Prior knowledge:
With 179 residues, the chain is mainly α. It is built from 10 helices and no strands. Helix content is 75%, strand content 0%.
Amino acid sequence: EKTNLRLEYHNLAIKNLKKLLKEENLKGQIRSEALATLAQGYIYANALDSAKVPLIEAIDLSESLDERARYTFILGQLNSKTDNKTEAIANFQKIINYNHKVPRAYLINAYAGKFSNQDIKTVDTLVFLKEYKSLLKDRENRAYQDIIYHQMGSLYNSYGVSNKAIENYNKSLSKIKDN
């Protein structure tokens, strides 16, 4: 069915996966992967709300922490795109709570996702800056400094502190690796 999705036969893949998921002997990790693929089919078919249900079930069934983090991140993105900001923030916070147990890419992008979904008026700037400066000091985050500096620039920009915003945006641009 992943092949059908790549060939852009989204509806066929969704139909076949729904039929497959009705089988009672499909359990555990295999069921989790089938549900994640179904969610992917819904995303490709632009049925974002429909993708959430199988993705939530895939998170619950997955035996791999990395997969759970990946699925949770995707769920956060879906909630963000469907204007469910509170749920998106909660999804990204779950990934942040995993801390060093998940790949750095998920962790840093979860911080960025959480920030971008918050109402700027509710962000505690002192806590935010302390947290982000701590992220910059961590050697494991070197490859993601562009994202961290960009978020700091966005915070300063939203408060009209142009010189600090420009300084952080420039640092972000100087740290870009491959994204």
